[in-house]
Amino acid sequence: MGPNATAAKQAEQLRIDGNSYFKKDRFGAAIDAYTEAITLCPNVPVYWTNRALCHLKRNNWERVEEDCRRAIQLDSNSVKAHYLFGLVLLQKQEYAKGIRELEKALDLGRGANPKGYMVEEIWQELAKAKYQEWERSSTKRSWELQSLKQACESALKEKHFLDGSDMEGFVDDATTTHLKQLEALEGVFNKAAEADIPAEVPDYLCCKITLDIFHDPVITPSGLTYERAVILDHLQKVGRFDPVTREPLDPSQLVPNLAIKEAVQAFLDTHGWAYLMD
């Protein structure tokens, strides 16, 4: 066995040791093990992402970022690296960049293992980040609308006062007009605020099996759309047929339903991501 092979074998044993320490919440010992593995074999991405996860458990975000950046340099398709890096960016309040990293991790995770635990974990973190972003935007819009409404009301009151002083004998008419204008103004601003009021999720955006909003919709040859992980689970455990039409169905026949995916994205962006929060 050559020196490279020996180093690789030692590094892999250190990874196993690090994993064991991590499961026991001995994060310092795990970091030491992964660091030794990195010293022996610095070009193995998983050693960096494993160490990054330990730093995350210690809330050492600067180290998490360093390790994730290195892991992404080594493997741009590392689901865990993009996921952890996304969390770092959200921690730094770089929300747009953080969301992009989580979306990258989600796409990579769906491609690698649609039913994997990380896909659901990433989806939940993405939902939380999207909802927080929407909530901040909603709060800002509400404040701006309220300020504009107050300015408009003040302008109408000032106009009513001036008109009233020039229209002796017509005070009642001026007051009636003023009240109608205020009522119309209230209606306009109530309508403008409707975009920030959550609406019910339309049925066509929900899986027919789980009745939950789609995460990763796929369409069958019969034209029905299901959640990918759910229909794959059905095909594996129940049988290779469409659960609604009962027609034969093979996993290779499932095609991403991009139209529904975009519709879900648009709905959540408009009405907030609170629907995906536990």
UniProtKB/TrEMBL annotation:
Catalytic activity: S-ubiquitinyl-[E2 ubiquitin-conjugating enzyme]-L-cysteine + [acceptor protein]-L-lysine = [E2 ubiquitin-conjugating enzyme]-L-cysteine + N(6)-ubiquitinyl-[acceptor protein]-L-lysine
UniProt-listed GO biological process terms: cellular response to misfolded protein; positive regulation of proteolysis; proteasome-mediated ubiquitin-dependent protein catabolic process; protein polyubiquitination; protein quality control for misfolded or incompletely synthesized proteins
Cellular-component GO terms for this entry: cytoplasm
Biochemical pathway: Protein modification; protein ubiquitination
SMART domains given in the database record: TPR, Ubox
UniProt xrefs under InterPro entries: CHIP_RING-Ubox, TPR-like_helical_dom_sf, TPR_rpt, Ubox_domain, Znf_RING/FYVE/PHD
A Pfam family matched in the record: U-box
Keywords from the UniProt entry: Repeat, TPR repeat, Transferase, Ubl conjugation pathway
Ranges: TPR repeats: 11-44
Domain U-box: 200-274
Enzyme Commission designation: 2.3.2.27
Transmembrane segments: none
Keyword ATP-binding assigned: no
GO MF: protein-folding chaperone binding; ubiquitin protein ligase activity
Protein name in the entry: E3 ubiquitin-protein ligase CHIP
Species the sequence originates in: Lotus japonicus
